[in-house]
């Protein structure tokens, strides 16, 4: 219960001059951006956890069939966060509760670890040693200030393994610049565009509680423009190519990879398409590589390693598929909500932005 809720003189708006009230929409926009950022990071980590679990199961089954019964260690996702400010703390709470990431698989590096007592009590390691964090993590979230980023990149660039995914929330630093600073290509950076002043994000709930509200959760869907905030869909292309890179690192044949991605990402259907699943969209080889490469790709060969920065900056084989296939968008939207435990029919689907794919 908020004891200050009915005390008008202690409300944020009370001390603002009347002529400045027109700027209050920025408060809702900031909250909307924070909620969307945490939601998309959670979605990404949920996908990676499911993918790694499936890869572990397939590897275990393969060893059993070949008579190699030695136990294979579970390859759980390890997540690092650089930055313990407002965004870093909100992100840690959401990942802990909604993915959920076990406390022992989440670590935070910040200049003031002593203020993160809340997380240390939960069993999360909090310290100030960025290279140590990078040596350990599979996914690294950058939640620092733009002014801090050059020094952080200088610290960690020689510690980044090829397969470590860097996920940047530093909006002021474009992905091409980040690639140069880190000398790394496995980078994801969501970009958001504010198109109108619509505040549907609520004010009394923390971010974790907000993402359990069906209305707010559906507004965060990648193809939704609800709340006046649009996500650049090139980020979603980067997410799927990141999944391909994980499979390539496991030396998994490309045909098995396509089958796995279809099982994990496109197997959740609306009621009206469950009767005719053959008509549902499927990932195809030509969605990721061009026809010339396809013809010369042996069946046992893994996918090539993808530069995620190039995927998000340029037109790819998948761009056209993303922008024209309504069925594909429907299935990904359904998957998104299903991973958060929210179900709806096609008629209830969040508003889709027809322009977001080209932003």
UniProtKB/TrEMBL annotation:
Family matches, as SUPFAM superfamilies: NAD(P)-binding Rossmann-fold domains
Gene behind the chain: NOXRED1
Entry protein name: NADP-dependent oxidoreductase domain-containing protein 1
PANTHER family cross-referenced by the UniProt entry: NADP-DEPENDENT OXIDOREDUCTASE DOMAIN-CONTAINING PROTEIN 1 (PTHR11645:SF58), PYRROLINE-5-CARBOXYLATE REDUCTASE (PTHR11645)
Residue ranges crossing the lipid bilayer per the database entry: none
GO biological process: L-proline biosynthetic process
Keywords associated with the record: Oxidoreductase
Function: Probable oxidoreductase.
Domain (Pyrroline-5-carboxylate reductase catalytic N-terminal): residue spans on this chain: 78-169
Protein's UniProt keywords contain Oxidoreductase: yes
Protein origin, superkingdom: Eukaryota
